[in-house]
Design goal:
Elements (H helix, E strand, L loop, with lengths): L3 E7 L8 E9 L8 H9 L12 E11 H4 L4 E2 L4 E3 L9 E4 H10 L1 H8 L2 H8 L3 H16 L5 H7 L3 E2 L2 E2 L1 H22 L2 H26 L7 H11 L3 E6 L2 E6 L4 H18 L9 H16 L2 H11 L10
Parallel strand pairs: 3-6
Antiparallel strand pairs: 1-2, 1-5, 2-3, 4-6, 7-8, 9-10
Length: 322
């Protein structure tokens, strides 16, 4: 007997049309998994939490996917976007498809190596608990959205749209904000070894998917998020661009837990001072204009943009069969 069998209509957040879908499986359970009670307690004691928004998320081991859940690459399924069929269970919480995430992880291995060079081996070795890391990373990321002017309020207020159209750079900046805030939660709540895995997983995910998208489809699946993340990491001195064998790659300042935890806290501090604290205007448009200034500064940083582009757009024959 499975923990859940969901049948109904689902749509992904970036589209308006629903389509049939089926999900069946069991909830993921493991020692060290951060549950909703724990993360929401951390939210409620954070100085930038304004009340209201809290995490309702459960990682799942999906054994059966059909329809929309199979055809779309999304790993996070939103309960608000699911309409259960008559007689079917409702989606009790947002869900993270852990096994789907693991499968995608295997497909981008060579791309991560091109971007991160010699550091990649140490990062892979540190990722001993991939399923647990995937589950916890999503919990932390969700909490990162709920600090300051939380993402649910932004959606209600029309913060991400103008004249009925999505302003994608603001969406990408919100994803960066959630990532950086998540690093702070991970450093605070998890043992050092597990916190480091969250950080490494996120970097390898953002940069690996970006490189894979450029090579295979000539597009950027995460939009500006990887570049904005690189910009923060370069600014705090944790990442620089180096060449090895004539090929540019990103080099970390260190991979030891103390070094990584310091970088995670620096990222969270950046989010707090440069993003969270500037989201206090009563008017959504004023907040959006402030965010646009942040984006403008980074997009017009020609030196860093050029360095990132050289790493991501280089030719590399070893990846062709990845």
């Amino acid at each position: 007997m499975n923990d859940f069998t969901l049948e109904g209509e689902y749509r992904v957040q970036s589209r308006r049309a629903h389509a049939p879908g089926v999900l069946e499986g069991d909830w993921y359970r493991a020692p060290g998994l951060v549950d909703n009670v724990t993360i929401n307690q951390a939210l409620q004691t954070h100085p930038s939490w304004r009340g209201g928004a809290q995490v309702r998320l459960r990682p799942a081991l999906v054994s059966r996917r059909e329809g929309k859940f199979l055809s779309e690459p999304d790993i996070l399924y939103k309960r608000a976007l699911f309409v259960p069929a008559a007689g079917s269970q409702a989606m009790a919480a947002d869900m993270v498809d852990v096994l789907k995430a693991q499968q995608f992880w295997k497909e981008r291995g060579a791309h991560v190596g091109t971007v991160l060079g010699n550091d990649c081996a140490a990062m892979r070795q540190a990722l001993r608990d991939l399923a647990l890391t995937i589950a916890n990373e999503y919990v932390m990321h969700e909490a990162g959205h709920f600090l300051a002017y939380d993402v649910l309020a932004k959606q209600r207020d029309g913060y991400f749209t103008a004249a009925g159209k999505t302003i994608w750079p603001l969406v990408y900046l919100e994803e960066l904000r959630a990532d950086l805030n998540a690093f702070g939660f991970a450093a605070r709540l998890l043992p050092a070894e597990h916190a480091v895995q969250i950080f490494f997983y996120n970097l390898m995910l953002r940069f690996g998917v970006h490189r894979q998208g450029i090579l295979r489809q000539q597009l950027a699946p995460y939009g500006l998020v990887p570049y904005l993340l690189f910009h923060v990491l370069h600014t705090i001195g944790f990442v620089r661009v180096r060449e090895s064998g004539g090929r540019p790659h990103l080099q970390l300042a260190g991979t030891r837990p103390a070094e990584v935890l310091a970088a995670m806290r620096a990222c969270a501090a950046h989010a707090e001072t440069q993003l969270n604290r500037h989201e206090g205007a009563a008017c959504p448009r004023e907040n959006a204009v402030t965010a646009a200034r942040y984006l403008h500064t980074r997009l017009h940083d020609a030196e860093r943009a050029d360095a990132f582009g050289k790493v991501m757009h280089q030719a590399c024959a070893e990846e062709e069969g990845a």
